Amino acid sequence: MDSLAGSGLASLGCVKLTDLVPSEGSPSDAYKRSVSTLSQSLAQFSAAIIQFPASDGALLRSGLESARLYFHQRESYPPADVIHTSESREWCKTSGYYADPHLWQETYDYRPGLTPPEPNNPMEFPPSGLPDIFALFGKAARVILDAISFHLNLRSSPFTEILDNVPLRSREVSSSVLSVCCHARPSFQGAQHHNITTQEDGQLVMYPDHDHQVDKSLISLVKSDKLGLYVKDFQGRWILVDGDLGPQDAIVYPGLALYQATAGYVNPAMRKTEVNMEGNMFGRCSLAFKLMPKSMASLNCSEMRAAGHGVESQFQLPVPVDDFMQRTHPTDHLLNKNGFQCFSFPPNHDGSMKTMMRRRKQNTKSKPLPPSKRLRLEAQRVLKERVQDIADKKGIKLRFCNLKECESHIHTIDSPCANIRMEIGWPPGVPFVHPHDLPNKAKLGFLEAYEPGWTLAHQTPDRNQSP
């Protein structure tokens, strides 16, 4: 696939869902353009607009109207047994109504296999059309996931083994969930202290207690009836992503599970919601679908390795999904791949191994690093701080070659990596492989290319030493 080189998108990319549906044989031009737009929008803004067929717009509209009526008829103060936060340990077992008063948010979770098709209480009807909307969003999320896989040069449907069966088998419960949400319903009085601030023009806006949130999903799809969803772009700016959507448009953004499964190549979206309170009768209602991995599966990067991508140390070991979902992930440094917090998942043994590693680290802290290891660390640093920054700004996904094969690539103009090497200024004569895997002499050439004078500024390691 062609690299996403260029000046970048001026605004959020908009892609028709029908153009992303794969077909047998060679990819069509429409498919390649759509994958390119989607991937570049996710790289720049961590979100994109997905346009459903016009016939699906009526289903989405009726779902939002039903959501408004459902929440409007509910009591003003939630019972204690339905109050909990999204960080519940039962992440794959939520169903029905619950409320988070601190975020001034109400949610009805629809989870096939767990949520009964008929209401238990005949006096209270849930939002309508949930099975149809779940099926619509679920199919779209899988199509989008496959398009991202195509861009990463992975085999088709590489994540099938960690997704729910389609359809679910007998007695299976869906890990994925459709959440019907309502923010800031005026008649909802659950919060003791509403986090409200006044804008300069006098309009009241509700801000969540937390500055931002990050979904733990693979893919999230959101359709709302009012604007207010902000996502942080790769430059650290908050971008309003649902300000001008058509009736069949929805927002898609990746989550932490996809970040883990792709070894950090797909950035998770940092998001927040702001609600304009003026003239707001029903609050802000939205339909949010999260494509989740199965609880009994593991997230691993074997497909990324098979495609030739460099997999850094924090992604080397498989991570049980249930363990991943229940852990708290620091998001202070979540902006782009350069600044991602490294998620580590130590094995669940006793503390002896952990203590041993801690002691070994303390004992060797004062020892100078061997020249070869210092070169490896410096090469990895430059990859993160220099090369990845250039690639992100140009919308290029780095897909490294095999060292042996690339020795011939660097001498031909039409090689698979020629365009990427030219776009990011890769040094001539240096194979296009992950800098960690380069021979020491090639590492020096790599470092000098992106930080001229590096050799003079540092103690030069032995060039003849094997890596």
Automatic annotation (TrEMBL):
Alphabetical list of PANTHER family matching this protein: 2-OXOGLUTARATE (2OG) AND FE(II)-DEPENDENT OXYGENASE SUPERFAMILY PROTEIN (PTHR33644:SF2), U-BOX DOMAIN-CONTAINING PROTEIN 62-RELATED (PTHR33644)
Gene3D superfamilies: B-lactam Antibiotic, Isopenicillin N Synthase, Chain (2.60.120.330)
Origin superkingdom: Eukaryota
Annotated InterPro entries: IPNS-like_sf
Annotated source species: Acacia crassicarpa
Protein name: 2-oxoglutarate (2OG) and Fe(II)-dependent oxygenase superfamily protein
